Amino acid sequence: MRTLHDLRDEMLAVARGTQPVPPVQSVIDGEAISGLLGVLTPANRALMQLIAAKRPETVSRLAQLADRAQPNVSRALQDLAKHGLVRLVRDGMSIRPELIAAEIDVDLVRGTCRVVPMAVS
């Protein structure tokens, strides 16, 4: 499993143009697909929309924006991070949530799912 530092280094290399954009992440394991789809609750989707729109500097700020308890938001973010939808970036003593996924495509016929990453800007 890659560390947050590895992911950050990869993201910076892509932004500099020294590394190509990584391929879309595909999931074909039925249990993994169920887990991925299971974390896409309305409350978690609202968190991802807030991260995209407001770019909160800390998890605490995201909790305020969402009007949810910070421990509840932290647990939700950990679940979303486990499935590759958000990234939790340590910034000194704080943790900043970042949205990774731009979209999720589900192919019901093939039983597959893929996470499409955000475009690097």
Please tell me about this protein's structure.
The protein has helices at residues 4-16, 30-38, 42-54, 59-66, 70-82, and strands at residues 25-27, 86-91, 94-99, 101-107, 112-117. It has 121 residues and is α+β, with helices and mostly antiparallel strands. Helix 4 crosses helix 5. The longest helix has 13 residues, at 4-16. The two termini are 26 Å apart. InterPro entries: HTH_ArsR_DNA-bd_dom, WH-like_DNA-bd_sf, WH_DNA-bd_sf.
* Proportion of residues in β-strands: 15-25%
Look at the helices and sheets and give the structural class.
Answer: alpha+beta
- C-alpha Rg, in Å? 15 Å
Gross morphology: globular
SSE string, helices as H and strands as E: HEHHHHEEEE
Low-confidence stretches: none
**Helix count from the secondary structure assignment:** 5
User: What is the average of the pLDDT values?
Assistant: 83
Strand order of the largest sheet: 1-5-4
Pfam family, one: HVO_A0114
Organism: Azospirillum melinis
Protein name: Helix-turn-helix domain-containing protein
InterPro entries: HTH_ArsR_DNA-bd_dom, WH-like_DNA-bd_sf, WH_DNA-bd_sf
